[in-house]
Structures are given as C-alpha cells and as structure tokens.
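Action item from last meeting closed. Structure (158 res):
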C-alpha cells in the first residue's frame, strides 16, 4: 500500500488544499493530512480548531486520515510507513520555498521523497491567509473554502 503524507499549516483548510488532496488520491492508496504545528508561527486558528475543520472537510474521502505533529513531517512519515510527502505549487514564489524545504527534508531523511502538484488555475490565488483577509474585509469567500470553514469564520466574527 502506497501511503503519502500531506503536511501543512491548514490555517484554515481551503478548496486549494482539497484539490491537491483529491489529485494525490489518484496516485496514492492512502493520504494522511498532517497538521505540522510550528509553535513559532502564530496562527489564526488553534490546532484543535484546524483539526476539527480538516476532519469535517475530508470525511467524504475513504482513504484519508488526519493527524498532527509538533515534530518533523519526515519523522512522522517514517513512523507510519509513508514514502512520500505531498506539497502544492502555486506561483513561482512557492517554488523557492518548496525547493529549499525539499532539500531540508531530503537532508533529514533521504528515504522520503516529495511529490508536487501544480495548483489548478481557479485555485492558484488561494492561500489560507488570503481567505481570512478577504473574509475580514467583507468579501464572500464561500466558493473558496469548505462549508464548515465559512461557518467557523462567521461564528468567530459574531
Ligand atoms: P505551509 O505553512 O506548510 O506552507 P499551507 O497549509 O499554507 O502550509 O500549505 C500546505 C501545502 O499546500 C503547501 O505545499 C502549499 O503550497 C499547498 N497549497 C496551499 N494552497 C494551495 C492552492 N490553492 N493550490 C495548490 N496548493 C496549495
């Protein structure tokens, strides 16, 4: 069984993330979404809130699991027998960061390789922080995120 990890901040999960997830499920038998918690990065949502939104958004996919770690994604991958990390690429600006991350991960564990999916055109501008900024600015972002994320954003702003 081919297992991959999809690590990220998911602060919050967006339709851009789900697009990458769906496409990766055509390549791997099982994908584990890994909330890789970086305590130095102050997020909009807590780890618990993010996990809750991820779980609700992916419950329709049979071969997806959700987990979190405050360690390295490659260590988590090794511990569950995963062979690949999945990441998405939007603009060229993502490339530099992802290229560096790839080298760092490969330095940490050269057995785990990375697989990149290009953002679909309609999703290429979606980032978690853009969603929050647009929402805070009064823009309707309901076509860009799962329903539970809109509900959460609305609840928090009341
Ligand atoms: P991180 O803080 O680790 O970058 P994110 O949750 O922002 O976590 O992103 C996780 C991964 O998903 C990254 O590889 C990012 O490039 C990718 N990603 C995020 N949004 C999109 C999108 N709209 N289209 C394609 N890939 C995306």
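Sequence:
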């Amino acid at each position: 069984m081919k297992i991959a990890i999809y690590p990220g901040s998911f602060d919050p999960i967006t339709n851009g993330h789900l697009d990458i997830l769906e496409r990766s499920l055509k390549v791997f038998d099982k994908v584990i979404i890994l909330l890789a918690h970086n305590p130095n990065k102050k997020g909009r949502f807590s780890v618990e809130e993010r996990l809750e939104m991820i779980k609700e958004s992916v419950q329709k996919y049979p071969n997806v699991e959700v987990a979190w770690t405050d360690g390295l994604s490659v260590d988590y991958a090794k511990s569950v027998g995963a062979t690949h990390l999945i990441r998405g690429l939007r603009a060229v600006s993502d490339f530099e960061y992802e290229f560096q991350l790839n080298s760092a991960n490969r330095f940490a564990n050269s057995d785990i390789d990375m697989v990149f999916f290009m953002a679909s055109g309609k999703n290429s501008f979606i980032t978690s922080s853009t969603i929050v900024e647009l929402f805070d600015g009064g823009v309707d972002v309901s076509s860009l995120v799962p329903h539970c994320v809109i509900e959460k954003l609305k609840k928090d702003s009341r």
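Note appended to the action item: The helical segments are 15-24, 47-58, 73-79, 92-108, 128-136, 147-157.
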